[in-house]
Amino acid sequence: MPHKGHVYVIDDDPAMRDSLEFLLDSADYAVTLYESALTFLDSMPNLPFGCIVSDVRMPGMDGMDLLKQLKSERARLPVVMMTGHGDVPLAVEAMKLGAIDFIEKPFDDDRLISMIDAALQQASEGARNEAIALDIAARIQTLSPRERQVMDGLVAGLSNKVIAREFDISPRTIEVYRANVMTKMQAGSLSELVRLAMRGGALKD
């Protein structure tokens, strides 16, 4: 049966690692255990997308340092941070550094699983949206300079005649450029072109 996603557990306590492995494996996750943040970072370049579940207090590189490192490397993996009782200020700081959520030990098993589910869904939606935006930006790059000018005019609400007058070319020629823009941008209507231009970062302020 296919698993629900990858989870990377980072904790220096062997008993906690074993407990989390049993829990998450039972919840249909593919679990990989790490005894330190450094061993995880060493293997991270070769890992598939997944959720990191890390303890905040560990010898050597702790959870906060891990978050800083992930941020500096622009890693896309969501992080759920485990904290000891009374570490709420530290947990808040962790979320400022990019952790999606935190959970206090001892925690409810179902609550942790819900957090991981939400983290993976939120992160995958973000990655999908980013991929779409990059695809649209790539389409914009295929436009010739004149086609880009025509698209800018269209999304600004200008008519073919106004655009033609602005660039001193015939309205018929603008129609040709407009058709090329719609084809290259894969837009079926002007409203769709506006939405694509917005998502691709082409709308001028």
From TrEMBL:
InterPro entries (alphabetical): CheY-like_superfamily (IPR011006), Sig_transdc_resp-reg_C-effctor (IPR016032), Sig_transdc_resp-reg_receiver (IPR001789), Tscrpt_reg_LuxR_C (IPR000792), WH-like_DNA-bd_sf (IPR036388)
Domain named HTH luxR-type: residues: 136-201
Positions carrying 4-aspartylphosphate: 55
GO biological process per UniProt: phosphorelay signal transduction system; regulation of DNA-templated transcription
Keyword Transcription listed: yes
Keywords: DNA-binding, Phosphoprotein, Transcription, Transcription regulation, Two-component regulatory system
Domain Response regulatory as annotated: residue spans: 6-120
Molecular-function GO terms, alphabetical: DNA binding
UniProt xrefs under PANTHER family: DNA-BINDING TRANSCRIPTIONAL ACTIVATOR DEVR_DOSR
NCBIfam families given in the database record: PRK09390.1
Protein name as catalogued: LuxR family two component transcriptional regulator
